Amino acid sequence: MDENREKHQADGSGVSLEHTLAAVEGVGRELNAVTSTMGDRARTLARKSAQRVAAGESVRSLEGVPFAIKDVIDVAGFPTTMGSKVSSGPDPSTTSPVMNLLEGAGALPVAKTNCQEYSYGILGDESAFGRVVNPVDPRLCTGGSSSGSAALVAAGVVPLALGTDTAGSVRVPAACQGVIGFKPTFGTVPTEGVFPLSPSFDTVGLFARDLALIADAFTVISRDQSRTFDARGASTRAGTPTVDLSLLNPADESSAQALTWVERHLGKSALASATSANFERLTELIDRGIDFYDIVRRYEAYVLHKQFLDHQGEQYQPGVWAKILAGQDITEAAYQSNIASLEELRAAAASFFDDVDFIITPAIDGEVTAWDELGPGSAAKFMRYSLPFNVLGWPAVTLPIGAVFDRSSWKTHVDSPSATTPRAKPASVQIVGAPHSDEKLLEFAAGL
């Protein structure tokens, strides 16, 4: 078990856990990242963990690791608010499989986290609880929809957090807040007990600062738990892996920064060969997929929410309600046609990896935007590089490559958000792998 995880584990006295719970109530609340705390549940599990260890039982892969849960994921005994005033039914009486799996591996749930209402929005600007504060700089957009989970990891409150990703809702807030965000292959992680946005694209994802921890957690929550992770890095085929750089345009600011990182990390260590020969095919796949995504997502979201149309429409955040209504005129025939085309695209697109192992892109288009600089095109820029891989269903991880959060100074900026001291903005790259190559993707990223 690596040192980065050991320091977060609760020992027999519960000291580390109590420190985490205090941080949840302190820092977590100040960041507006917490919707409910789970201290009693975590303490009960920690006692059972200590009893297992005392009895000589083997240490589980996530023993004593505190984690947070996006508040669209059911935990029995706790409300699932979806960041909304809308009532979508009684509080859950059962716990989602993904939560059960993490707890079964020894992880300790400490909080549910604030999020974009019903996960419908990439900016993180609309929640019934208000916006989450970006620990990097309160003036910067957090990204969404899993804003609070990213913030608790970024602020060092928890080492691990769950989010959901339909168009980038794990990877974008990770990039905006300077942590690692991982979206597994579509369908790899159970989504039962997770309130959907668009089931054709929804994926449960992970936040952390440590790739090995993400790999361990993914092994636990994925449907195939027989995998191993090599933190030294690995290739998907014999010899040196090939990395496609087609989506990195040197004339684009975010691409230029990513290219500098690629040259430093791939060139210096000779970890991979690079190609940009697949631009036309890759952009064709992306362009086709985005058209399908628009129809399918709007239809599915509207069907999920139309039951609340007559009686609770005024309870939604205005922008979220407008997005929901945008699906009301899509016919079932149009939806079914696009679903069929989407399945055909996913099947055909897998051959892209016949000659390529990984793709590297910027995480977002441009730099992280300040709240007061958001405009009509901001959401599209945030999703430009993340959304296509939800459509295709491929696994993707975002890694910080620029300035990262200094935990010792965030409180000053929260207390004085108008401070004029310039701060470097976080920057990240996205690495994409073939469908069901999740472990190899994480191993490759760990070797960089």
**Which term fits the overall shape?**
globular
Report the CATH architecture: Alpha-Beta Complex
Amount of helix? 25-40%
Strand order, sheet with most strands: 1-3-2-4-6-5-10-11-9-7-8
Q: What count of structural domains?
A: 1
Protein name: Amidase
Domain Amidase: 17-442
Pfam families: Amidase (PF01425)
Organism: Brevibacterium picturae
Description:
- By secondary structure, the protein is of the alpha/beta class.
- The chain contains 16 helices and 11 strands.
- Strands 1-3-2-4-6-5-10-11-9-7-8 form an 11-stranded mixed beta sheet, with helices on both faces.
- Helix 4 (97-104) links the parallel strand 2 (66-70) and strand 3 (108-113).
- Helix 7 runs antiparallel to helix 16 and helix 9 runs antiparallel to helix 12 (332-349).
- The longest helix has 27 residues, at 279-305.
- The two termini are 20 Å apart.
- Residues 17-442 form the Amidase domain.
Q: What would you say about this model in short?
A:
This protein is α/β, with parallel strands linked by helices. It has helices at 3-6, 15-30, 39-54, 97-104, 147-154, 171-177, 211-221, 253-269, 279-305, 309-312, 318-325, 332-349, 378-383, 387-392, 410-415, 438-446; strands at 34-37, 66-70, 108-113, 160-165, 180-183, 203-208, 242-244, 273-275, 358-362, 396-400, 428-433. Helix 4 (97-104) links the parallel strand 2 (66-70) and strand 3.
